[in-house]
Design goal:
Chains A, B: Keywords: FAD, Flavoprotein. 2 copies of one chain form a homodimer. Chain A has 470 residues and is of the alpha+beta class. In chain A, 36% of the residues lie in helices and 20% in strands. In chain A, a hairpin with a 5-residue loop joins β8 and β9. Chains A and B meet through β9, α8, β11, α9 and α17 of A and β9, α8, β11, α9 and α17 of B.
């Protein structure tokens, strides 16, 4: 009996897919940067089936590659080329198990789409604040496994800050029943914190209990044109002074990236009279009714205009205008995908260091990649600026990998000089395992390996992700 | 050469204390519930000395009991009776290393007093939101090691939510340099999250980088008299509706506990006309100037009075009145300490379950401990209600332990029925290791033991805390 036959005795037939066409979308990431092989795609419908799969995988030493909406940017959900692994899709675990309005919590299974969770919270007059470009297709299990960030981190934190409890399956199939709606629980080690962000290498997340927040009853959205990143930081500081903790998003984009977005993504329009060197996207929100948040934004921007901190600003006068402004920001990933050969990064540095970091990257690029265009877009409010190097269209495909490696080494070295992170929110995946080995403190890396051994002694959970194979 | 002699070659003489009188305060907890022995008290002045101590401890297999302000409530910082251990006091590592106003971060060493950190933040027009009864003497390393909570968790979270980066020393003496002012960093496993709340059993915390927040420019404080815990939840719900995320604290206290506080702690005055069955303490704060937060509170309380949700309310008209109200809340620990024999708990349940949980505890106490008084005080806004059973004064001292065990078993069983936590914010320490063994899922406990093994293979770090000795 082949190992797959053994699995057939444990699972519903619909849970086992071997048809190459049906498997194909699961063997590559959405940017088409990674391709792998698997001898089956498993689509369990329940936690019990996930448990059965992991017991089987442990018994047969079968590598498991957990996969959610497959929107990751680091190759963490794509199997390697060997074909030894199975892809474990959590898509069919897609129930919202509970919403507690009084306690402001929501419990959802791994396969739930992020946008559906946002809507379920909104339907109950609450906010689920996680928001990112792929929210229409990424899944809750994936955002937990990668500790996703997005545009509201400045106010609400990353996924880690939103998770109260976690249900996950250990490598040996044991289900850890850690769902809980508790804001405080210090009963033993914070195992779930370790599982969050471990990219499917320590356990398979099957459900999570999240915090909900007061839904902003009043909001204000603006797009500003500025001369420089340091002007953006000045504006942030002014806004903090007057809007306090009401700043939900504060995003920065350079004009080169704005150009790509306007050129490559249909339906994008710049609501300013002319182009500027830099743009800031602002979202304020207030859970209290009758909040003068709109006036606060108008007055702060007027004052910033007067002081020459910004050059122009468009304040949304309707929901539709607000959506149009944010569409410009969210379209970036799509624009970059269509724009041709790029090398992109997901570094973060201290907020105050952002302008100097950008200058250092520009200087490096001017010296080493004179034909590339250096683009910046990201979450300046939390120091996480995506560096995007757009290579000339005529760059030979076979040179891309080498150029990428060379550029990455430079960008990561600069990041390290600033005491930053090589991967602020996209995780390590399979892309950056070598970089982690190079940049992490060896003693910390040894602890990570010891933790991996503690959770997954047989090494069947997403091998080759996060920690390089040895 | 004795092992202490070996240590003398590594440390400044002032770092090694063996005088019994000087050691005594470090061998018991502040409530006097735990007493232990140690063959030395070590008081390093630097991270390098901490590292040297741990290298020595590893070489000599000496158990290390890390200690901060020694204000813990679970016996986690008191050595056992064997005298085999040394107490490692972090008190002299007490520098604030950096404050970054633009990035809203503060980096402090383990021995810094919490109140000093609050003041340093305030002096820079920022808020460090952690606030708890022992803030005048507890130390930053201890609050990180125990993931402390306190009265502002409803808004700002526990210590875990405040820590951005951590410097800690491994059992073998290796210093993990994880201080960073980054809001986002997904480069590998979240080791620091595991160290937070591990009560000195996985590593010794030497410094942390914390988030700072906008300092409330407008605040409002009130004490309310109510009839029941469910009225308190109704009030919370009304307040959420109008004050949104501006609720910094929402605390509940029963009249029995209020009576103890008024009786036993000098300088406490009830600012209401008469006593009530229950009290709620409210603190609102707003980082934006000109916020109508005071009016919001007045109007919400007036509306609650009208709807008979509350019976009376005192709104502070000055800083001094606000401090007097909060003095009533903070004096509870002192009142309980002076009031005679008590058995206290630190459970949490879902917020909506608080009234039913209180009723269940009262019913249990009426049946099993008819002579005890059942008191409740705590953070109803986050579901963390301290159950305090006050035993008759004449209870023979030698019976206290047995009564305590019996009561605890009942309280924990009820907590488990509600899906709550046996220790919301006080940790496991040495008090609750048996309870953790009993109540934790065995597969989760096994993971905790594997993690302990990964971090501390020789078992020298605070042995007997968190995980029961086997």
């Amino acid at each position: 009996m082949s190992s797959l036959d053994a699995l057939r005795t444990l699972l519903d037939p619909s849970a086992i897919v071997t048809d190459p066409e049906a498997m194909a979308p699961h063997l590559t990431d959405w940017r088409g940067k990674h391709r792998g092989e698997a001898f089956a795609l498993l689509r369990p419908r329940s936690v019990e089936e996930v448990s059965a799969i992991l017991r089987w995988a442990s018994a047969t030493r079968t590598p498991i590659v957990p996969q959610g909406g497959n929107t990751g940017l680091s190759g963490g959900a794509t199997p390697d080329a060997s074909g030894d692994a199975v892809v474990l899709s959590l898509t069919r675990l897609n129930r919202i198990r509970a919403i507690d309005i009084e306690g402001d919590t929501l419990t959802a299974e791994a396969g739930c789409i992020l946008a559906d969770i946002q809507q379920a919270a909104a339907a109950n007059d609450r906010l689920f604040p996680l928001s990112l470009g792929s929210e229409g297709s990424c899944q809750i299990g994936g955002v937990v496994a990668t500790n996703a960030g997005g545009i509201n981190v400045i106010r609400y934190g990353t996924v880690r800050d939103l998770v109260l409890g976690l249900e996950y399956v250990r490598a040996d199939g044991a289900v850890i029943h850690g769902l809980k709606p508790l804001r405080k629980d210090n009963a033993g080690y914070a195992l779930q914190e370790l599982v969050i962000g471990s990219e499917g290498t320590l356990a398979v997340v099957t459900a999570a209990t999240f915090r909900l927040f007061p839904r902003p009853r009043v909001g204000a959205t603006a797009l500003c044109g500025l001369d420089s990143p340091s002007a953006a930081l000045k504006l942030l500081s002014m806004l903090k002074q007057f809007a306090g903790e009401r700043i939900s998003s504060f995003e920065l984009m350079c004009d080169g990236e704005m150009g790509l977005t306007l050129d490559f993504v249909p339906g994008t329009i710049l609501p300013l009279e002319r182009r500027h060197a830099w743009y800031v996207f602002i979202e304020l929100g207030d859970g209290a009714p009758n909040s003068p948040i709109g006036e606060v934004l108008t007055e702060t921007l007027a004052s910033a205009l007067e002081q020459d901190v910004l050059q122009d600003a468009a304040i949304a006068q309707s929901e539709a205008q607000a959506r149009a402004i944010w569409h410009l920001r969210f379209a970036v990933a799509e624009a970059n995908r269509r724009a041709g050969p790029i090398v992109s990064h997901n570094t973060s540095v201290a907020v105050a260091d952002v302008p100097a970091f950008i200058s250092a990257i520009e200087a490096m690029a001017a010296e080493h990649l004179p034909n590339a265009r250096t683009l910046f877009v990201g979450h300046v409010g939390d120091g996480n600026i995506h560096v995007v190097l757009r290579l000339p269209k005529e760059t030979p495909a076979e040179q891309l990998a080498d150029i990428g490696h060379a550029v990455n080494a430079q960008v990561f070295a600069i990041t390290r000089d600033f005491g930053g992170s090589i991967t602020a929110e996209h995780g390590i995946g399979r892309n950056l395992t070598g970089t982690l080995t190079l940049h992490a403190q060896p003693e910390a890396l040894a602890l990570m390996r010891a933790v991996k051994q503690a959770f997954d002694p047989l090494g069947i959970l997403n091998p080759g992700a996060v920690l390089a194979k040895r």
